[in-house]
Amino acid sequence: MQDIIQVRDIMHQYGDKTALEKISLQVSQGEIHGLIGPDSAGKTTLMRILCGLLNIQSGTVSVFDLDVSKKFKEIRSRLGYMPQRFSLYQDLSVEENLLFFARLFSVTVQERNQRLPELYAFSRLEQFKSRRAGALSGGMKQKLALSCALVHRPELLILDEPTYGVDPVSRQEFWQMLKSIQKGGTSILVSTPYMDEAELCDRVTLIYNGKVLASDTPTKIKANWNKVVFRVTSPEMKELEPELVKIIEIESCQRFGNELHLVLQADEAASIINQLETRFDEYMPMLEQIQPGMEDIYLSYMQAVQHKEPSHAG
């Protein structure tokens, strides 16, 4: 499958702070590719470089096999970008925002008359087309921003944390919209801090402190991870947790709601669990092996980086 985005050894600094350090990744045509990581991981910096909004300090970036640093005007007409913060005109109505972006991308009147009804049907915003953008709910604002990014039928969508701060129902609806866009042939690069959204992508790149932790399909990332996860529950969790954190053989002890997830080396797990059951019998812990989630894997990779070197900011 042809790569629609190719990033090679990108470095970017803000003063003495490193935002991206030797980042490389590929996005294939027709896929939804997730850029997964928390705030300050470097996601927004990378997306701004891809969109020509930041200069390339080191490395190479091509989109549609065109050099971003030299051919961005050609790329821009084929690209749709949705920034992290809602950036449409708050005082304009839904319809006025759509018309503005249609004119901005030189969409003809005939195309516009066909495109707007399609976008209204897709986003279910037609009944709100006279409402000012500033008066929309968070989920509706995201739908409008996505519709404006789609008004010129781009081949590639770059979406920077489009579901951040949006309620769960709106998040689900938004991802249904992305799947529909993908079926229409559009390639999508989407960033998110939500690990559950990684499972909705065809491929993902896990990024932390400006470095790639892993990049592949979610299934392959899980298969290549050589650790196991045990879920721990106990009526004495408050006393048990600090004791488990101290045990060096446990690579990670993270709280997930009312339970703990222990990350162990696969070949050492049976021995360690036997020791835990004997040592902490007084706390009556229940230990159960579970399938690792993307959050377990991400935290494991993140902690390995933290132990190796000082942190960066980006």
SSE layout and pairings?
Elements: E1 3-14, E2 17-28, E3 32-36, H1 43-50, E4 58-63, E5 66-67, H2 68-76, E6 79-82, H3 94-104, H4 109-123, H5 138-150, E7 156-160, H6 168-183, E8 187-192, H7 195-198, E9 203-208, E10 211-216, H8 218-223, E11 227-233, H9 237-245, E12 252-256, E13 259-265, H10 269-279, E14 286-290, H11 294-308
Parallel strand pairs: 3-8, 3-9, 6-7, 7-8
Antiparallel strand pairs: 1-2, 1-4, 4-5, 9-10, 11-13, 11-14, 12-13
Describe what this molecule looks like in 3D.
- The protein contains 11 helices and 14 strands.
- The chain is of the alpha/beta class.
- The strands form 3 sheets. A 6-stranded mixed β-sheet has the order 6-7-8-3-9-10, sandwiched between helices.
- Strand 12 (252-256) and strand 13 (259-265) form a beta hairpin.
- Helix 3 (94-104) runs parallel beside helix 5 (138-150) and helix 4 (109-123) runs antiparallel to helix 5.
Nutshell version of this structure?
This protein has 314 residues and is an alpha/beta fold.
Helix/strand order, N-terminal first: EEEHEEHEHHHEHEHEEHEHEEHEH
Low-confidence stretches: none
Strand order of the largest sheet: 6-7-8-3-9-10
Looking at CATH, the homologous superfamily of the largest domain is: P-loop containing nucleotide triphosphate hydrolases
What does the average pLDDT come to? 91
Q: What characterizes the major β-sheet?
A: 6 strands, mixed
The DSSP helix count reads 11
**Number of separate structural domains:** 2
- Give the percentage of residues in beta strands: 25-35%
The CATH architecture category of the largest domain equals 3-Layer(aba) Sandwich
CATH level 1 name of the largest domain: Alpha Beta
> How many β-strands, per DSSP?
14
Taking Cα atoms only, what radius of gyration do you get, to the nearest Å? 23 Å
Report the span from N to C terminus.
Answer: 31 Å
Classify the secondary structure makeup into a structural class: alpha/beta
Bulk shape: elongated
User: Could you say what the CATH topology of the largest domain is called?
Assistant: Rossmann fold
Helicity level: 25-40%
